[in-house]
Fold these 3 entries.
Entry 1:
Amino acid sequence: MKVCVWNVRGASRDGFIPTAWNIIESQHPSIFILLETKSDDYRAKEVMMQLHFTQFKVISPTDKRGGIWLFWKNSIDLVLFSEDVNQFHVLFHFENVRPEVLITGLHAPSVPGPRHALWRNMADNLPPPDTPWLMVGDMNEVTSQSEKMGGRPFRSGKCKDLRNFMDAAGLVDLGYHGNPYTWTNARDGAGLIRERLDRALANSPWLDIFPHTQVHHLPRTHSDHCPIIVSLHHDVVEGPFPFRCKEVWMEHPQFKDFFLHNWSACEFDFIKGRDSFLKNIVGWNSNVFGNLRLQKKTVIGAYQRYSIGFI
């Protein structure tokens, strides 16, 4: 069983559905949590059906900001649901698992004051200590210098309230596999910042039931955040595929112009040129050759390989 959480930065933007469907098709999550959807209940139901989920809950955005969607499969029973503007708590009954488990999906405020108040409030309102608890989402917080590249140096005092909450709740960071950063501001040169803002936390009762829980960072596409997958069992998450430039592409009379356009449009910046090429080659190949599924897997696998290799 898998849980996927993704800050999508708008669930009505072009390209969202194909990108989300690729996650569903490759990872098969039973629970899908979407953050910062900026969309209403009608859109949530529409997306739920397109992605082949059967149940959903919505935290509506405020002035087209925020918004959280929770999708899940029929094989999971919802026992209890509570929500706030930044988070939800859901008590699920998993098939063949006792007792019920608590999953919190969260998008912490980007402004320090409200974010620190959120951690303090959560520390004062904890579930019973024997409740298996998984907390996933965009915490908008780094906890060490190793989780940050670029920008101002890390200061430990900034994450004090998060760490105090984790200590009070008995939650531990589950770590990750893949790219060490889950968010980027995508700026040029010295202005580039990358951080690990999205994470998964769990307590001892959760790990007693799911001792093999693992977190995988998927390739970042569509949003400035990458999706994260929490695998509750020893599931194998697809690793990077080697990128292969098909020889037949180079024989096509339009390929050279296509390649140069993507490269020169990014002012010959290698990272941006690479990202632009990987993003657009799928559509180009689909229009010319039509083998969309195979090429999409190849491109996304290559993107993951290069995003790790060129940090």
Note: The mean pLDDT is 85.
Entry 2:
Amino acid sequence: MKYTLTVIVLICFFHTNAQEFKSGKIDQDWFEKTLTEEQLEAPAVFLEKYRDTNFEYRDNLDGWTLFTTIHNVIKINNTEGLEYGTHKVVLQHQGRQEEKIDRIEAYSYSNSSAGVERTKMSRSEVIDNKLNKWLDEKVIVIPNVKVGDIIEYSYRVESTYWHIKDLNVQEDIPVLHAYAKIAIPQFFDYNVYVKGDIEIVPKLSVGGRTENFSTEDKNPFGGRTQRTDFANIRFKENISEFEFSNVSPIIKEEFTNNIENFRSAVLWELGAVEMSKGNKVNRAKTWDQVADYYYEQLELSDNLESTNFLDESSQALKSKHSNQVELIEAVYRFIQNKMTWDEKEYNYDTPDLRKAFKDGSGSSYEINVLLVALLKKVGLNSSPVMASTKSNGVPLYPTVNGFNYVLAAVVKDNEWLVMDATEKNAIPGLLPERIMNWEGRLVKQNGTSKGIPLFAKKFSSQKTIVIASVNTEGIATGKLRVSYSNNLALSFVNIYKPAAASTREKILAKEFESDLITNPQFKFGTLPKSSTVSFAFEDDTSEIIGDKLYILPQLFLSATENPFTLEKRSYTIDFSYPKQIENVVTLNLPVGYAITSLPEAIEINLPGNMGVYRFKCSSATGTSVQVVRSLSINTTLIDAKLYEEIKKFFAQIVAKEKETIVLVKK
């Protein structure tokens, strides 16, 4: 994927004595800082962002600990910016590994005729939330925040995970000035990646440090003993310093996969650690090393082999199905019906396939690894696929942290077929939209891996048939029927099937932008069969001027707004999957009126056969009009370089669909 963001002015100089400023010392000068028009019009603006990340060595039992200090100052410009008065920090813990937070300070500052008034946050205004078994949350609530105030907060996170958090150069609001320093001991080898279009030029240097290393013996139970040995060791430290000024915020745009994929940032991925002299443990230098990591650290190999509890099920399935296609379908349906997704992507803590199978519930890891195991047991070639949901972003480099979901793949007709048994309404080869995210990584037991595209291979269709009559007052009444296939059908079923009748009607009215819908009838087909909805409607979009009646050919189905309105586009356009939207409308005209004009037929093509729009309006008898309109999007992703073409394409569609059938009284 190519990241395309608006290039902004970047000041890459470094203060000679760049250091953290003290908390609680905001004065009048901060309120008088010169801000650009963009910074003044934003909900809020970072006046200062400071970060320091470094490692300290505890002892041979605790090892290296990662410390990150954060200190931010934000000016609140309007009511939308008040949300920045609450800051959340998520902390992870698992076994001996954990993240802790300390040194929390927060203040609000108001500027009045009497001077700058400071309010300090009390400890009671720090809220502790438990998100789940592995994640806690600290919520810093800054007191008495009002529009025009400056807020300040600082804290330090202590972590034994060695995972350096991303450095976001670009935020949701403008940044006046930012400084960050990342210091990494020579024993850690991190892969460093940059995303976004902002030029990021760090100041690199190598420093020397002396650390007091202590060694403690363990007792038979793994605890500490009284004996402690000490040694001073001098080592090198690789230092990266980043400084930015006047950074524009990231802009959210329609038809964007995940805005985080385009945010300018620096990312660190731990590639190797030198545990002792000459003993380097590789973690994520190549995709094959990533595959090894998943099989070893996440116990994929053990979980796939320790599945004798599936023997009875596999024998039953093999006895009923011998054809490969039928067997794949049967195994998939068995796991799909047996298991219910707990809506957790992973369960890396203690993935227990036996327990998950017994309980009939589990994470994407447990459900789809069970699917892989059962496919293997019936004699099929199957492997797990590590994937990342759209909300998690796109892993573009070898990473063990970039994946948050597991899929299953099986060889069918010499090709890999990817499946997700967490989705109750899907079929083999049809993935839910949440996981249609670039490509996954198929990991084999022999330690190799390969990229697997996660884009839809089949077109999804939406076909609408309308039969309506228009009266002399321009009111159209009629019936409408829509049928959906593939991913559009999956989305339709997932939205409407679990909803109550009253809720369905509200969703339907919003989707079709009409409050004049009555008697909706839903038919939820089992894929690959289509699903349908039909309803009666009344439409008042026609207009009478003098003795003429102007009717929109597609009534309320007409496109009236271009979804692409920005002057320039920075991000790849994501249509989710190839699709065809077709409307076939028959309008019976009112008695006493004659056709004066009909919109002309048109065909509009996008370059490279990426899409086509066709529109035809005709009348064979003069008493009715037939309209056939189709829009085909033949590709999932379109480069932002073609934005002008896309914008023009949809502008032409809107212009055409605003044209009216003109009738005149006889």
Note: The two ends are 60 Å apart (CA to CA).
Entry 3:
Amino acid sequence: MLGNRLPPFVREHYEHHEWRHASAILSQDFPDEWGDLLALLQELRLKKSWISVGGGNKSQLAAFVDGFLSRRGWIVSHAVV
């Protein structure tokens, strides 16, 4: 059950849904990445200024997510299928 895998803050502040046992797979097969995603959700505070700014390059929200994951060792990868 997804709700049992989420910390209280995430359960209380985000709408969450399970899809094809994704949380079971992530939490068991990729525990470090699962932990990073949960930490991201716990640290994220969406600011009005992030979404009221018009056009341009990368949004401040995207920059926050990228920076957070980059500091945890995530890298951009382009897969060719």
Note: Residues 2-71 form one domain.
